[in-house]
Design a protein that fits this description.
four-stranded mixed β-sheet; globular; 28 helices; single chain; binds zinc ion; alpha+beta; about 55% helix
């Protein structure tokens, strides 16, 4: 759902090379001296000091746009899962039902000969329906069908699904979102600089290429691509920007169904409900009403032929990865090679492991957890999370800029945060999904239908607070403001991020700061607008809210000064929540670490004091690099600042860091007017 992004620690981890399954996860310690660049002065550029040699030892693999500690670990998890899936792909009689499903799905995905032989056949039924469309009234039925088969998420014209009610977080209601674009952000359609114009030109060429693969002749395909571009440009202009989407009030318009029909009288909603198998919902949160007015205008003004072209493009676009080589290659050439600067396509196994994780993630994750995640790791991660929360509680009691009225509410919210560590208590039941070892496109379609049904069935029901939004092997973490929970999948609680063999300093610096980061999201500029129950409700006094805004503005001004690439600066209104969480999380981890070790005498190790080890551990989660094209894409779309500023931006605000490395006032890592929010 586009509705409200949960706050991740890391954006879209991408994966890497080395072609062999792993039988065990490799061990990398959470602090590696060989990654240091000792020629760099830690007081001038701490990120370079802590991570400067990482890139030399870990160059970006040709099949990746970005390569860092998180993506490297993700890749290792995938190599390990690859080994398991190869085993389960053998049709041996002893397989459990889940093993059969994940094994057969993997086998179907790996069977390139069968996929090649099928060609564009998996699209034929839908292409026929599109061709048979007689009037725009039939659009609703067709869109419902396409949404249901290919994901409700919003590639076709708009998005539809379910989410917690902003006003009542116990209830799930229907959400109608903006969508319908093929480029990664609405700004790609509106920016006027030369690079953006070039990108649009390349995109139109890509659309034409894909339509040619469906059999359209070159001159016609080119005209058709122009039509798609024109429709998408109108949709983009009517869509909110990513910065606007960060304000939940911008997304909250709970309307009776009749009002949605008034916004779009030419769209036959009853036929749409029927097509997706949903009783007409009483209320719908229409996240962007202006977008739906534009949809209405387009249905009114665009001839039927244009809609057929638009739907054919989005059909082939959304299913390209399940088709033969020509489609997969064209899709790669534009979205990975051109937009992200990736040199080579990922090997097949890697794409297939990722598809199993996406479509049957809790079946695959269950095996991953059984084999890799020990009860001891879970217990120690739970204990560290409690330490960080205890520290935040003490911090809230001390904060001078907050009144007692707001403080009480903040404490109440902190005490209600639910800690989810490792994996869900109850696993998703995939027994109704049919998976065949020789039908990749069909398997994918049935998995999409299963997931869509699951999402739609939630409407009108109480929320399931036990549910997870990430699969267990995922190397990432998140805070969900409506659930008011912090989530750490097993995949992110492994070395080198979380390392039971290592001393506390790097563990608190690394994973402790990540836990603090997610917790702080509950109190960043977006999260603070939700109360303890996850309702969108202002619990701040005016004076305290003003004090918060002023403190956050310090961070926003700081990050706005950093360059991403060329003349592109960080859009710090987009990254504010993450920047506040990075700073707050590190502060919390530092204090929690001091508190947890206060009765011990800590000695220097390998020439670094315990405080220095804390900060090196804190920096070394972020070692990595990304390609220039990917930096441009991230500057527009990623709510996180580039890795180097996620480190230097934080430590330069911390007197504790300056003291640890004896940095002097006036040096780059000592900001004259240090920011502090929490
Ligand atoms: Zn975050």
């Amino acid at each position: 759902m586009r509705a409200l992004a949960v706050s991740l620690v890391f954006f879209a981890p991408l994966l890497a090379a080395q072609d062999r399954p792993l039988t065990a996860l490799p061990y990398t310690p959470s602090l590696e001296l060989k990654f240091l660049d000792r020629s760099a002065d830690p007081c001038v550029d701490f990120y370079r000091f802590a991570c400067g040699s990482w890139n030399k030892l870990n160059p970006i693999p040709p099949d990746q746009a970005r390569w860092n500690v998180y993506s490297k670990l993700t890749n290792e998890n995938m190599q390990y899962l690859w080994g398991l899936l190869e085993e389960y792909a053998k049709p041996t009689p002893g397989r459990t039902p889940n093993q059969q499903k994940i094994g057969d799905y993997f086998a179907a995905c790996m069977n390139e000969a069968a996929i090649e032989k099928a060609g564009s056949e998996p699209l034929e039924a839908d292409l026929k329906e599109i061709a048979a469309l007689k009037d725009t009234a039939g659009l609703a039925t067709l869109l419902g069908r396409l949404h249901f088969e290919s994901g409700l998420g919003g590639s076709f014209l708009f998005g539809f699904g379910s989410n917690q009610d902003f006003a009542d977080s116990e209830q799930v209601i229907a959400f109608a979102d903006a969508g319908g674009l093929g480029l990664p952000d609405r700004d790609y359609y509106t920016k006027t600089d030369a690079k953006s114009q070039e990108t649009r030109q390349r995109y139109v060429e890509h659309i034409a290429r894909m339509l040619e693969l469906l059999g359209d002749r070159p001159p016609a395909a080119s005209t058709e691509a122009g039509t798609v571009m024109a429709i998408e440009t109108d949709l983009a202009k009517a869509s909110l920007t990513r910065v606007e989407l960060r304000d939940p009030y911008n997304l909250f318009h709970k309307l009776p169904q009749a009002d949605l029909e008034k916004l779009t009288p030419r769209f036959d909603w009853p036929r749409y409900w029927q097509a997706i198998g949903l009783a007409a919902p009483a209320v719908i949160n229409v996240t962007e009403p202006a977008f739906y007015k534009e949809v209405e205008k387009l249905i009114e003004t665009r001839p039927l032929a244009d809609w057929k072209v638009y739907l054919r493009w989005h059909l082939v676009h959304s299913r390209a990865r399940y088709l033969g080589k020509a489609f997969v290659t064209a899709d790669f050439d534009f979205y990975s090679k051109y937009l992200r600067g990736v040199k080579e396509m990922e090997p097949r196994w890697k794409r297939c492991v990722r598809r199993v994780d996406r479509d049957l993630g809790e079946a695959l994750g269950q095996v991953f957890v059984e084999k890799t995640f020990t009860p001891e790791t879970k217990a120690s991660a739970v204990a560290m999370t409690r330490e960080i929360e205890k520290t935040m509680e003490a911090d809230l009691h001390q904060i001078a800029w907050m009144s007692d009225a707001t403080r009480q509410k903040a404490l109440e919210k902190l005490h209600t945060v639910v800690n989810k560590i490792g994996y869900p208590d109850k696993w998703r039941d995939y027994s109704s999904v049919v998976i065949k070892p020789d039908d990749y496109a069909g398997d994918a379609e049935r998995c999409d239908a299963f997931e869509n049904r699951r999402q739609l069935d939630k409407i009108g029901k109480p929320v399931d607070r036990a549910e997870w939004g990430m699969t267990p092997p995922t190397v990432n973490a998140y805070y969900d403001p409506q659930m008011n929970d912090i989530n750490f999948p097993a995949g992110v609680l492994e070395p080198p991020l979380y390392d039971p063999k290592m001393d506390d300093a790097p563990n608190y610096g690394n994973t402790g700061a990540t836990i603090g980061h997610e917790l702080t999201h509950g109190f960043d500029d977006e999260g603070r607008q939700f109360d303890a129950k996850g309702n969108l409700k202002d619990w701040w006094t005016k004076q305290d809210a003003d004090a918060f805004v002023a403190r956050a503005a310090c961070v926003s001004t700081q990050y706005a000064g950093y360059t991403v690439i060329d003349d592109i600066k960080i859009n710090s209104k987009l990254t504010l929540g993450e920047d506040v969480a990075d700073l707050g999380g590190t502060m919390l981890a530092y204090v929690a670490w001091k508190d947890a070790t206060k009765d011990r005498k800590l000695e220097p190790i390998d020439g670094f004091t315990p405080d220095q080890r804390f900060f090196i551990g804190m920096a070394q989660w972020a070692c990595g690099d990304e390609r220039a094209a990917n930096k441009r894409l991230h500057a527009l779309t990623d709510p996180h600042s580039p890795d180097e500023y996620r480190i230097d931006g934080v430590v330069s605000n911390m007197p504790e860091f300056a003291k640890a490395f004896s940095c002097k006032t006036g040096q780059p890592m000592v900001r004259a007017n240090a920011c502090r929010v929490w």
